[in-house]
Amino acid sequence: MKNILSVILLMLIAGCSVKPAVVPSLEGSAGKGDNEIYIVSHGWHTGFVLPADDVQRRLPELEKRFGNTAYIEFGWGDEGFYQAEEVTSRLMLKAILWPSESVMHVVAVPVAADEYFSGHEMAKLCLTDGELRSLVDFIEGSFYKDERGEIRRLGDGIYGDSQFYKGVGEYHLMNTCNKWTAKGLRSAGVDIFPAFKLTAGSIMKSIAKIECNTRSVP
């Protein structure tokens, strides 16, 4: 039993070091800045919603694709599971148990984030300029770039005006979509340990105390 626990612990630790990697934050715990960003829960999956200008300056391909939009949502996940038209138990098990390629899911949010994601659990964080910069660094580093430094566009997204892009890193049990969100939060200076953030609920609970504005789910 002790050997099994040791193996599990090593896997959890290793899950923190794989790509996309946390961007070291030079500032303290997030929650005291003027830059508002959102974390949205889709029940099983979480993502970031950022002001479009902050990321389009770094990734001009997104400005060409989505144009003048207020916010952009970012999610990371398994290439097959995320893009599947029909989710099956076989596909779900394959995504969890077998390392697979990853994708970024990018969604244009043309109105206020809480209006667009009405009915979803959301949290708003207020980041300093440095914390926001580190988070954008992390998100940018989650996109695969070719030899010309350009991100690779894939198929259409799954809701709204959205698009898939080739991601960085492999998806598996110890490197999930919610762990990706936890790594992004860590990059933004949030005191969170990504290794144990396997569910959307664990993410939302971890940031409840540092929200700069709380909104209840109707």
Automatic annotation (TrEMBL):
Record's protein name: Uncharacterized protein (TIGR02117 family)
Organism: Azotobacter chroococcum
InterPro entries with a match to the protein in the record: CHP02117
Keywords for this protein: Signal
Signal peptide start-end: 1-21
